[in-house]
Amino acid sequence: MNLALAPETLARWQFGITTVYHFLFVPLTISLAAITAGLETAWVRTGKEKYFHATKFWGKLFLINIAMGVVTGIVQEFQFGMNWSDYSRFVGDVFGAPLAMEALLAFFFESTFIGLWIFGWDKLPKKIHCACIWIVAVGTILSSYFILAANSWMQHPVGYVIDKATGKAQLTDIWAVMTQNTTLVVVFHTLTAAFLTGGAFVVGIASLHLWRAKRKQLRGEEPGEKQRHQIGAMRTSLRVGLVVAVIAGLGTAISGDSLGKVMFEQQPMKMAAAEALWETKAPAPFSVFAVGDVSKGHNSVEIEIPGLLSFLSHNNFSDAVPGINDIAAQEAARYGGKPEDYIPSIFMTFWGFRLMIGFGMTSFVAALIGLWTTRKKFWLAPQFRTGENEVPRLMLTRTREMSPFFTTWSWRIGILTMGFPLIANSFGWIFTEMGRQPWAVYGLMKTGNAVSPGVSQAEVLTSMGIFTLLYGILAVVEVKLLVKYATAGPDTDEKPPTKDPRLRLPSPGAGEPEDADKPMTFAY
Amino acid sequence: MHLHDLWFLLIAVLWTGYFFLEGFDFGIGVLTKLLARDRTERRVLINTIGPVWDGNEVWLITAAGATFAAFPDWYATLFSGFYLPFLLILVCLILRGVAFEYRHKRAGERWQLNWEHAIFWCSLVPAFAWGVVFANIVRGVPIGRDKNFAGDVLDLLNPYALLGGALTLVLFTFHGAVFATLKTVGDIRHRARSRATVLGMTSGVLGVTFLGWTQIESGNGRSLVALIVAGAALIAALAMNHFGREGWTFAFSGVTVAAVFALVFLALFPDVMPSSLDPAWNLTAANAASSPYTLKIMTWVAVPMTPLIIGYQAWTYWVFRKRIGTQHIPAPAPAPAA
Q1: Angle at A173 between CA A170 and CA A174, to 5 degrees
Q2: Which end of chain B is less packed: N or C, by CB atoms within 10 Å?
Q3: Residue B321 lies in a domain
Q4: Does residue B316 fall inside a structural domain?
Q5: What is the pTM of this model?
Q6: B170-216 tens-digit pLDDT
């Protein structure tokens, strides 16, 4: 059989396509839920309309996004059984538990309370309505915890024994699975990256509106009343997005560093591959750029920062970091086979790692600069301060504004930055999953042994084709909708509900007759 | 009682709960073309399940996840063996979910019509496919010594399974029509009621044939009880529908759906997937189950959570208890000026 079309290869491609696609929506869902919840809380507490309009606006974009996240998530749960049945048999005793917990403890909350939130604007008292979106937000975070605990077990299996009779993994300590350092660090890293993604998304769209308004002003058009309200809502959103992105970006860097150290210990091959570090070195340098040849086992061109890799793995600049060739030889001696069987794709891991850090940190730096230059009052001469409903000036120092050229480019980068964390997230997962190869469960089960033996090549080709086509079409539809709703901006004519509806009517059905035929405030 | 027997019961409850809830969701989807006369009426129907369909669908995620955790071999054999039916169901659930959320987000005729087609077909197809899947489970499929499915997709398309598919499709549509009588007001409510009578009687005919066949081929004393309950509940539902007692009709149509799946699971037990090749290769609740330790942990999670979930989901239905008629449907959302 043609190796490129081997069932294992096809199943991996399908898993890769569907999972990377699913994870475009996941981080946005996690962070936009919390950001929307925060904005609604601000509205409930202060009664300011700009918070209401911002809540509605980001809430709409959140809903367009979560719809895709939910439906592509079902595929994830089904395809373990469909395409990886031998894997499912082997790990089900351990891996199934967090998955079932995710459904019972997180998905039900998310999906039930999102319905209440969407349709409940005129049915629920403000505070209860706001509580609904908080429950959704907490649900998304819990859900990520459970699924990452399951993934961490594949990266670093703990709390199990291999049953002698069946040869399958058997859970002995759920607490170990849920609280091992891999799980905790990965959860921290994924959640901070999710908030960086959402923060950058908000920054990008708010920048789009503010820069558009600014250009109109530069052309001499004065904003109308409605536009001024929109600018107000977008300015608040921009600041929220910047703060979220800066804090989360810092958290991503810190947690990424911790995760790196955990990986150096638990999966040295992945980290050596991330660095294309072929030979063990002490002190080990950090490679900025490298071009290598897998078959020859070395790099032909490289640019390095001396000692940095030693620092990243051991917190000092001199300790040895094991290289790919040594680790591969060790693994071959331990698990059998040839050393090259244990080397993941160096090209993908090396560049995946760099693109993850590069794109993630670029949006962090952009947010940091934005947070400083769009400040409201701090260290700002009074004549440069702008009103609540005005586009902020980009101020470098107390009295010095950015030049027009840099102002233009700053806003443009602000808009572009919303895509960067999405790219970083995708490459982060591609790196972490491909870097674990040839293992599906590190040290226990190889990916080649994990596929469904009964599923034919034709079946996998069919499903992969259908998913790719369907996801492609839906991507176009989703992006068009997002663009339409994002560029339309908040509907500042909409009036927030003035009085809370009563949950209980005086007597069933009797209610308020004049309201009985009132149209729903929201309908599908 | 072994823990794996308790978990067989819990899995049965989760799947049955899923079909009770998404059963009427699918039914409503099918009725958007069978009952609604125009777009406003279609929107009335869609909005009866608007706030709840997503929560209902989580019962499927939970049923599948719990099957994975409690019976890894059952999950692995079923999902890899029934590869193409599950692919079809997945595609439909994806399109249907997106259709509910996106249909109203643009005003264009073409846009709205396409999503309405999606809602109809992607409700109809899974309603049928689930019947085919569960009929095949109870009938037995070629499962080899290694617990893997050894047949192909044509093995799944036998007359018995197709009859099972027809039954779930019509029964879910009946359940949906009854739900519509309970949740709508105006002309559509009355038409839903008379449509329910026809659908209920058709379900009766299909039910007698399919469930009778099941009882003779794979039944036992316990499943006979479920068969009688299903029949009695359907008759009671039809009678209550005749007298216009909508709440009771819905309760009984729900009991009918639940009893049909109870029959399937009672006929199965203690097997979970019998092999048509050799009874020695049957997957059973005992040989497909996870370790007692895993089942114990899962029990600790499921036992307090399930009533809580049922509680807050019930509250959701209470919040949205008001009937919906054409007068409640707002004008199509004004497209945001881009």
Answers
A1: 95
A2: N
A3: no
A4: no
A5: 0.94
A6: 999 999 999 999 999 999 999 999 999 999 999 999 999 999 999 99
- Residues of B (303-332) whose Cβ lies below 8 Å from A: 305-306, 309, 312-313, 316, 319-320, 324-325, 327-331
Pairwise CB contact (< 8 Å): B50 & A523: yes
Chain B: closest CA distance from residue A384 (Å): 31
Compute the average pLDDT of residues B94-109.
Answer: 94
Taking alpha carbons only, the member of B31, B252, B11, B26 closest to residue B134 is B11
Q: Can you tell me the mean pLDDT for A287-310?
A: 74
Q: How far apart are CA A40 and CA A62, in angstroms?
A: 13
In this predicted structure, what is the pLDDT of residue B259? 97
The tokens describing B295, both together, are 């089942």
- Rounded to whole angstroms, the Cα distance separating A430 from A445 reads 19
Which residues constitute the domain of residue B176? 3-185+271-307
Confidence class of residue B334 from pLDDT cuts 50, 70 and 90? low
B60 shares contact with chain A (CB less than 8 Å): yes
Angle A238-A244-A250 from CA coordinates, rounded to 5° = 130
Residue-wise pLDDT for A163-219, tens only, equals 998 899 999 999 999 999 999 999 999 999 999 999 999 999 999 999 999 999 999
Parallel/antiparallel/unpaired status of strands B271-273 and B283-284? antiparallel
- The answer to whether A99 faces chain B, any CB pair under 8 Å, is yes
Distances (CA, A) of B10 to A78, A466, A471, B3, B257: 19, 33, 34, 10, 17
B257/A contact by beta carbon, under 8 A: no
Dihedral sign (CA B320, B322, B325, B331): negative
**Taking 80 as the threshold, does the pLDDT of residue A523 lie above it?**
yes
Mind telling me how many Å the CA of A361 is from chain B's nearest CA?
32
Task: Give the strand pairing for A298-305 and A286-293.
Answer: antiparallel
Kindly determine whether residue A112 and residue B312, on different chains, have CB atoms separated by under 8 Å.
yes
Q: What integer pLDDT is reported at residue A1 of this predicted model? A: 46
Give the pLDDT band of residue B336 (cuts 50, 70, 90).
low
Confidence of residue A510 (pLDDT cuts 50, 70, 90): very low
**Chain B contact present for A186, CB below 8 A:** no
Are B94 and A74 an interchain contact pair (Cβ–Cβ within 8 Å)?
yes
B105/B96 Cα distance (integer angstroms):
15
Q: Read out DSSP for A168-182?
A: -EEES-HHHHHHSHH
Residue A4: per-residue pLDDT: 67
Q: Choose among A94, A470, A524: nearest Cβ to B47.
A: A524
Q: What is the ipTM of this complex?
A: 0.94
Average pLDDT (B269-277) is 94
Residue A405: which region, alpha, beta or left (left: phi > 0; alpha: psi -120 to 50)? alpha
The per-residue pLDDT for range A401-445, each reduced to its tens digit, is 999 999 999 999 999 999 999 999 999 999 999 999 999 999 999
Closest to A454 (Cβ–Cβ): which among B80, B294, B319? B80
CB proximity B69 to A under 8 Å: yes
**Is residue B223 one of the residues assigned to a domain?**
no
Q: Which residue has the higher pLDDT, B202 or A290?
A: B202
A524/B79 Cβ within 8 A: no
Contact A459 B312 (CB under 8 A): no
Scored b (16 or more CB within 10 A) or e, A461-489 reads eebbeebeebbeebeebbeebbebbbebb
Please state the domain count of chain B.
1
The residue whose two tokens read 């020695």 is B280
Chain A interface includes B90 (CB < 8 A)? yes
Structure token pair of residue A490: 């908040």
By CA distance, what is A79's nearest residue in B?
B79
Report yes or no on B323 lying in a domain: no
The better pLDDT of the pair A387, A288 is held by A387
Q: Do A115 and B54 touch (CB under 8 A)?
A: yes
